[in-house]
Amino acid sequence: METNISKVREHTLSLRDRKILTLSGVKDVGNFNDECVTVILDSGELVVKGSGLHISKLSVSTGELLIDGNISSLIYTQNNTGGGILKKLFK
Question: What is the set of domains in the chain, with CATH numbers?
Fold first, then answer.
């Protein structure tokens, strides 16, 4: 019997002195600027807020991400079921 269950990639994060955030298990990066980075995970999104944010390293193939800057908050959001960017635009 064959199943179509995809394995959810686990993620880890490490925040050092509120200045260096290291993430694993990253699928992609959505929007980003120097005040906000939206990280796409299998379980939803992680919104990183702060000032002077910079993506130092991104490897989608290995799922690694390194963000530096002044990090003020990390906010998890639920995984949306489809719709993509068009759904977000027409909310």
Answer: 12-77 (2.60.40.2000)
